[in-house]
Amino acid sequence: MNDVFKVHEPARIRTGKYAGLVGTVTETVEDDGQQTGVHLDIQGVREGVPVSKQLWFKRSAVERNTHG
What we know:
With 68 residues, the chain is mainly beta. The chain has strands at residues 10-13, 22-31, 34-46, 49-58, 62-64. It is elongated. The two termini are 23 Å apart.
């Protein structure tokens, strides 16, 4: 996996309870030279309820926040 996230970059959550929300990468973890996890600071609204969380996600559970 050549596509890695860096601190302060936005990342969109692909799966789970917070799918679709975007967070800012605050920390990453690597194993054998591959990024395996990202820590996100999530600020948003999910189903009308404000969300303010800091959570770890597997690298495969997040994607680039691109438009179009």
